[in-house]
Design brief:
The complex is a heterodimer of chains A (about 325) and B (about 350). Chain A is mostly helical. Chain A has helices at about 1-30, 45-55, 60-70, 90-125, 130-140, 145-155, 175-205, 205-215, 220-235, 240-245, 250-255, 260-270, 275-300. Chain A has a domain at about 90-270 and about 290-315: Orthogonal Bundle (MetI-like fold), CATH 1.10.3720.10. Chain A contains 13 helices and no strands. Chain B has about 350 residues and is of the alpha/beta class. Chain B has two domains: about 5-225, Rossmann fold (3-Layer(aba) Sandwich), CATH 3.40.50; about 245-265 and about 270-345, no CATH class. Chain B contains twelve helices and twelve strands. Chain B has helices spanning about 50-55, 85, 110-125, 125-140, 145-150, 160-170, 190-205, 215-225, 240-245, 250-260, 330-335, 335-345; strands spanning about 5-15, 20-35, 35-40, 65-70, 75, 95, 175-180, 210-215, 225-230, 235-240, 310, 315. In chain B, strand 4 (about 65-70) and strand 5 (about 75) form a beta hairpin. The relative contact order of chain B is 0.13. Classes of the chains: A mainly alpha (about 325), B alpha/beta (about 350). The interface of A and B includes residues 218 and 304 of A.
Chain lengths: ~325, ~350
């Protein structure tokens, strides 16, 4: 288990290094105005001077090495436009809690609604609940999220007797409802769809027939045989989905003007704050990698068939 | 003869498939006697598996018993509607060993846990008592180092070993009847004999009544006291092992025995029954086997034959046994079967 985890960790690190290099290189292709807040008013000499001070005129490998050194110290650099000379870690530390709190609530909501919905759909396969559930899943998956986010915002604020505010204010609990629900709805459909699918797959397996034949009640079969088996393939993707949700949604946050990570990303891209964009892209990429890593490790924990001690385990 | 433990009366089973009705079982009468070993043979699609699934309420959801009774210790199983009723029979009274051991165990639970589940359900054992009993049963089914194997997962067992575990689960239920649905089909030839020997030994030890479903006449000859030959959802011939092998009366039994590879002549192609089984979606008129039967009489196409009794233990459903029918001898190789059999043993 330890060997496997270590190997898996090293591979994740390698991936991360590749991603950092690519992101870093790509952003060097961006116009240099993204490093100055008052670019239009600066003379050519001032620009060159500024770039030299930031080390941006050094050869690329030197710059890259410097960047890695910085990262190892936990320093993401400073913002140049969004908030002059404020460390990016500080900006993120201010923005992340809102996103994470909202994401966490959305996650709870989607697990509490999505998994039971999926299980219920699988149990009553072909009946009305399954059909309604499938219709809901297809609708959410097929319609672009922008459309139903807008619908939720437009009609959610019109509910008679329940004045839900259009815009987010951290201190007003009512204003959390719509953005949280919007964040959750995609995951609800996603979890329900996959759980239903995997459960239906399992239900047709021979070991379920054998369990029935030995006299296990169908309730117990669902609970202690099918659910766990159906959960295995899900486990691999859940951590990534969790972490992505925790980091907030670009669209939902800008719709309700939530001061979170998603809104921040939109802001800095629009204002071409290169260093912040670079840092945020790195954060999102590492989250995906960490999510996949946790997923793989969890898989190994829940499924005894994945052998971790043999050589082929870590392939 | 012992008392009948299970009596099937005029059983009919239908399946609904895309709005059409398939008559899978067409009026079966059968008594299973306590302590015997009965083999149900027939080709794929003859309804032998469906027939046995009705005893445990394990029909697919589109299948229903439309007529008849299944009397087990005086209770009509065919009248069961709720899961609760079935739970009083499944495992506890009738247990099953399935065909493919590679897929019939839950991959995420240890072998021990799966045996203990049955022990807890049917013998009320918990914790250490269940564990001890499970290890004992594992030893009974021929698994060495049972205590260590108890905590292992199914993927750590070979196919033959898994089938032993499946059998252990069935035994742990402490049933009266054990249904073995093609218990050796998915196994290596070398393992097949071991499993059959094991099943025979367990039958003695636990006083089980065993029902074998198989298309392998070799298996049948090994284990069965009596044989029921099924064709197109009906039992066409029923008799003791001796009677069915050495004095078969139904042309379908003749054809089935003729297709035994052991009866083939070297250099000649193996015998196969011409034609295909009838379409059970439509009403079968007369004898279902008639269209493929070289000995078919005119009446075979018109009226379904009744059972003709050959001996108190032997009956067959063919008009050839009617006193008015012309005398027909079975094919020569069938008449030689006894000689072949004795030569081999």
């Amino acid at each position: 288990m330890l060997v496997y985890s270590a190997k898996r960790l090293v591979r994740s690190l390698l991936t991360l290094i590749v991603i950092i290099t690519v992101v870093f290189s790509l952003l060097r292709l961006m116009p240099v105005e993204g490093y100055f807040s008052n670019f239009e008013k600066m003379s050519e000499a001032q620009i060159q001077n500024g770039l030299r001070q930031m080390g941006l005129l050094d050869p690329l490998p030197v710059q890259l090495l410097g960047f890695f050194r910085q990262l190892v110290r936990g320093d993401l650099g400073v913002s140049n436009i969004y908030r002059m000379n404020v460390p990016i870690t500080q900006i993120v530390a201010e923005k992340a809690p809102v996103s994470m709190l909202m994401g966490g609530m959305a996650l709870c909501l989607s697990l509490v609604l999505g998994l039971p919905l999926g299980a219920a759909m699988a149990r009553g396969k072909g009946r009305w609940l399954d059909k309604c559930g499938t219709a809901f899943v297809v609708l959410v998956q097929a319609v672009p999220s922008a459309v139903y986010y807008l619908i939720i915002q437009l009609y959610g604020t019109q509910l008679p007797g329940l004045p839900l505010p259009m815009l987010f204010r951290a201190e007003n609990p009512l204003s959390w409802i719509l953005p949280t629900f919007s964040l959750a709805i995609g995951n609800i459909a996603y979890y329900a769809m996959w759980l239903r699918r995997f459960m239906v797959d399992e239900m047709n397996k021979d070991y379920v027939t054998l369990a029935r034949a030995k006299g296990v009640s169908s309730k117990r079969i669902i609970r202690s045989h099918i659910f766990r088996n159906a959960f295995v393939p899900l486990v691999q993707y859940l951590p990534t989905s969790f972490l992505i949700t925790l980091m907030g949604s670009i669209y939902v946050e800008s719709l309700y003007s939530v001061p979170g990570m998603g809104g921040l990303l939109v802001d800095v891209i629009q204002r071409q704050d290169n260093t912040v964009v670079q840092a945020l892209v790195l954060i999102y990429a590492s989250i995906s990698i960490v999510g996949l890593l946790i997923g793989d490790l969890l898989m190994a924990v829940v499924d005894p068939r994945i052998s971790l001690n043999k050589k082929e385990g870590a392939r | 003869m012992n008392e009948a433990i299970l009596s099937v009366r005029d059983l009919e089973v239908e399946f609904t498939l895309r709005g059409r009705t398939l008559h899978a079982i067409r009026g079966i009468n059968l008594d299973v006697y306590e302590g015997e070993s009965l083999a149900i043979v027939g080709e794929s699609g003859s309804g032998k598996s469906v027939f046995c699934k009705t005893f445990m309420g394990l029909l697919d959801s589109n299948g229903t018993i439309t007529h008849g009774q299944i009397l087990y210790k005086g209770t009509d199983l065919a009248a069961f509607r709720t899961e609760k009723e079935w739970l009083s029979v499944r495992g506890r009274e009738i247990a099953m060993v399935m065909q493919d051991p590679m897929t019939s165990l839950n991959p995420l639970k240890t072998v021990g846990a799966q045996i203990c589940e049955a022990l807890t359900l049917h013998q009320g054992m918990q914790g250490d008592a269940a564990k001890q009993k499970a290890i004992e049963i594992l030893g009974d089914v021929g698994i060495t180092e049972a205590a260590r194997r108890f905590g292992q997962y199914p993927h750590e067992f070979s196919g033959g070993m898994r089938q032993r575990v499946v059998i252990a689960i069935a035994v742990a239920c402490n049933p009266r009847i054990l249904i073995c649905d093609e218990p050796t089909t998915a196994l290596d030839v070398t393992i097949q004999a071991q499993i059959l020997t094991l099943l025979r030994a367990l039958k003695e030890k636990y006083k089980l009544t065993t029902l074998y479903i198989t298309h392998d006449l070799g298996v049948v000859a090994n284990v069965a006291d009596r044989i029921a030959v099924m064709y197109a959802g009906d039992i066409v011939e029923l008799g003791t092992c001796e009677e069915v092998f050495y004095e078969p009366k139904h042309p379908y039994t003749w054809a089935l025995l003729s297709s035994l590879p052991q009866l083939g002549v070297k250099g000649e192609s193996l015998y196969s029954i011409p034609g295909t089984p009838p379409n059970l979606f439509s009403e079968v008129r007369g004898d279902a086997f008639a269209p493929r039967n070289p000995y078919a009489l005119k009446i075979d196409f018109v009226e379904r034959p009744p059972y003709f009794e050959v001996s108190p233990t032997h009956k067959a459903r063919t008009w050839l046994l009617d006193p008015r029918a012309p005398k027909v001898e079975p094919p020569e190789n069938i008449r030689n079967l006894r000689a072949v059999g004795e030569e081999r043993t």
